[in-house]
Amino acid sequence: MVNQRRVSADGEVDVPDFTFDREHVLLYVDGWAWHHAPDRFSRDRRRQNSLQLQGWTVLRFTWLDLVQRPSDVLAEIRQALAAGGR
């Protein structure tokens, strides 16, 4: 099931853009306006490391990825889901 459930990462609560619970896959769409600041960039990396250590597969895409290469994005998501997030 796809949803936006809360996850605990690096001591904080986070809400990924999409969560595939059964497959243990999280998706984030990173916009430049929010993610370009150094503190946010660093926090994103700590959060991703924490989630991966908990067994989540974390996929990150930019808005341009979605617009300019949607087929590639879907292929990557399907590959992660088929692997069960592992």
Shape: globular
**Helix-strand string:** EEEEEHHEHH
Helix content: 40-55%
Total strands: the figure is 6
H/I helix tally: 4
* Biggest sheet: strand arrangement: 1-4-5-6
Strand content: 25-35%
CATH domain class = Alpha Beta
What is the architecture at the second tier of CATH?
Answer: 3-Layer(aba) Sandwich
The largest pleated sheet is described as: 4 strands, mixed
What gyration radius follows from the Cα positions, in whole Å? 13 Å
Termini separation: 17 Å
What is the fold-level CATH name, i.e. the topology?
A: Endonuclease, Chain A
Q: Given the helix and strand composition, which structural class is it?
A: alpha+beta
Low-confidence stretches: none
Brief overview:
With 86 residues, the protein is an alpha+beta fold. It contains four helices and six strands; from the N terminus they run E-E-E-E-E-H-H-E-H-H. Strand 2 (7-9) and strand 3 form a beta hairpin.
Notes on the protein architecture:
It is a single chain. The protein is of the alpha+beta class. It has four helices and six strands, in the order βββββααβαα. It has a single domain, classed as 3-Layer(aba) Sandwich (Endonuclease, Chain A), CATH 3.40.960. 45% of the residues lie in helices and 27% in strands. A hairpin with a 2-residue loop joins β2 and β3. The longest helix has 16 residues. It is globular, with a radius of gyration of 13 Å.
